[in-house]
Amino acid sequence: MDSQSPVKKREIKAAKTRDSYTERLFDNWKAFPIGAKFIIILYIAVGLALSGFHLYTAYFGLIEAWAVRAVHVTLVLLLIYLTPRSTTVDGKKRYYLRIPDVGLALVVAAIGLYMYIDYMGIIVDRTGIPNLYDKIACWALILLTLEACRRKVGWSISILGLIFWLYTVWGHLLPGYFGHPRFSSNNITDYFFNTPMGIFGIPTSVSAMYIILFVILAAFLYYANSSDFFLRLAFALTGNWKGGPAKAAVVASALFGSVHGSGPGNVMATGVFTIPLMKSLGYPPHFAGAVEAAASTGGILLPPVMGATAFLIAEFTNTPYLTICWYGLLPALSYYLVIMVIVHLEAGRRNLVAVPREELPNLLEVMKEWYLLAPIVIIVVMLMDGYSVFRAASMAILSIILLSFVRKSTRMKPLDFIAALEKGAGNATGIAITCVAASIIVGGVSLTGLGTKLAYFISVLSLGYLPLTLFFTAVVGTIMGMGMPATPVYVILVSTAAPALLKMGVPLVISHMFIFYIGTMAALTPPVALSSYAAAAIAEANFNRLSFTALKLGAAGFLIPFIFVYHHGLLLMTGLTGALYALSTALPGFIALSIGMSGYFFMEMAVWKRALLIAGSILLIWPGYVTDMLGIGMIVLALIAQYLLHLRREKSKSLAV
Q1: Could you give the 3-state DSSP secondary structure of residue 600?
Q2: 175, 546, 555, 572 — which has fewest CB within 10 A?
Q3: Does residue 238 lie within any of the structural domains?
Q4: Over the stretch 114-160, which tens digit does the pLDDT of each residue have?
């Protein structure tokens, strides 16, 4: 539609808040007392140091791996303990630091300085024979990490980390199967501090090399207004369809969530626009919020970034990153297919109209900002060309800065650049500190041999029966994943649950993809369900009703990993024939699951028909032609019965008229 049209277009914008400390400081420079200025400038300086250090190593890579992880942990801890606190006095916000926080930050700085000065002594000269200072630094870092983790992400992973640490130190006192040999303080310190195995293990490595760069990338995309672009693109593509606003919310959340890597963060970024719009067009508040929660959580499953967990899977399984993306493509699209079908059925149930085309963004106009997709394209192309992940991510960040100057609406000012570096570092601290805590857990599991024991215990409990092994693994993963980000959940499950699947003969990559899906979907599982909490706040809806609706919308996320364990073709591992066979059973199953969960097909469905559809979709998981045919038969029976009932109702209405 041209600009002269009298019809007002909807203003489609993602949430924008000037909540970085850089923006707060420079927006109100004169209002801040000198002490508050010093505190905030100190925080900004540490944030810039953290982002700058990782961008430098990404470009030049001149520092040994242990040293990179040590600097990473030091700066992350400093940023957490130096985060300004605030209070309101006489209507004005005051910023301050508590004395204990300053003390803890000084301890962190002292340990960081010690690691820098005696770097060669720690990792070379004293390997196997740590001294007293190494032991003090080791214990202090572990306690500082667990406290920092409590502050950023809550008690769950801190308590879990403490339990595993205490088990490592005193688990030899336990009688029976779960006891382990006694480890000396030299053994423990050497493993956890002097080598890249404990505190500086693989999760910390992935956080330092990959995750933080993608969090910084997301911050730069935010300040280049890319979230606006994703929203406008989604509405231009799907807004005029039946149930269009909800479908646009699904598309936008998928696009933004893959890079963002946080379900709750994605809800807050896109949901402040999509949820009110869905409500205004007739969707109930709980359903509108549930769509956003389910779609935002699923963004972590979507290639090419997969919330940066793809790099962890690649690292743990020694599989090329692009191969992991290839494996994850079809399952992620299947997940969104189910949500789209339920959204469509809900629109039919409520007879909701589409947004008029005149009120929607023009696709050609939106695509004038196509260059905002360039960072993702650059990452994929550079990885295909053999460049390292961190080099590709750093070049993508550089491309955002340069391309932002193409149009005034996306142009980054110097303040935006500083704010992006600071905000990226601040956003990274939560996931980074959970990765460090996960490294402590993984280190304890590895050193004590607990992972092997848990694998054996699960296999005994499941009687050597793979479906039961998958079920118990899913239960463990869901419980452990409540209240924690997807990435650290995956890392913990690698050590505690994946060995049980490997013991049952499930291939390595498939085992890791299984626990990745289970850990991610835990964010939708009540009673914690962080994504649903965020959506409920925006939608002003009852949390319990919203969270169970989101669980229904995201049900495929729990079903899909069971399917690809039996049908490797869903992961595109078995060539075209295998993929087609997997799709021939999976797609009917997904659509049947959607209809069964929705309870609407032309009209409201009886309970027995919904039960047939859900049971049929589950039967399609089971390998074998008999179960496939039985499942398809149940689905066809339910749909035909529903359609015939619909025809009779329509005929009765026409005769009545």
Answers
A1: strand
A2: 175
A3: no
A4: 999 998 888 888 888 899 999 999 999 999 999 999 988 778 788 88
Cα gap 548→532, rounded to integer Å: 9
Token representation of residue 474: 């899913």
Q: Phi, psi at residue 225, to the nearest 5°?
A: 65, 30
- Taking the C-alpha atoms of residue 531 and residue 541, their distance in angstroms, rounded to an integer, is 13
Question: Helix, strand, or coil here: 604?
Answer: strand
**Selected residue with higher pLDDT from 351 and 610:** 610
C-alpha 162/C-alpha 168 separation (Å) is 10
The token duo for 291 is 């769509």
- What element of type H or E holds 603? strand 603-604
Query: Which residues, other chains included, contact 636 with Cβ-Cβ below 8 Å and sequence gap of 6+?
Result: none
Contacts of 304 (CB under 8 A, 6+ apart): 258, 310, 325, 376, 379, 380
Total domains in the chain come to 2
What does the DSSP assignment read for 72-116?
Answer: HHHHHHHHHHTPPEEEEETTEEEEE--HHHHHHHHHHHHHHHHHH
> Domain end: 198, 222, 239, which one?
198
Q: What share of the chain is helix, strand, coil (3-state, %, to 5)?
A: 75, 0, 20
Domain that holds residue 631: 588-657
Domain presence at residue 494: no
- Over the stretch 223-275, which tens digit does the pLDDT of each residue have? 887 767 777 777 787 777 777 777 777 877 777 766 666 677 677 767 777 78
Instruction: Mention every residue, 6+ apart, whose C-beta is less than 8 A from residue 421.
Output: 47, 48, 51, 52, 216, 219
Q: Exposed, middle or buried, 527 (CB in 10 Å: 0-12/13-18/19+)? A: exposed
88-107 burial: b if 16+ Cβ within 10 Å, else e: eeeeeeebebeeebeebbeb
Establish how many alpha carbons lie within 13 A of residue 406's alpha carbon, considering only the half-sphere containing its beta carbon. Answer: 14
Tokens of 493: 């499950």
CA 303 to chain centre: 12
Domain-ending residue, one of 164, 198, 232: 198
- Cα–Cα distance measured from residue 605 to residue 418, given in angstroms and rounded to the nearest whole number: 55
- For residue 61, being part of any structural domain is answered with yes
Distance CA 571, CA 136 (A): 47
Nearest to 146 by CA among 362, 410, 441, 568: 441
Dihedral sign, CA of 191, 510, 493, 483? positive
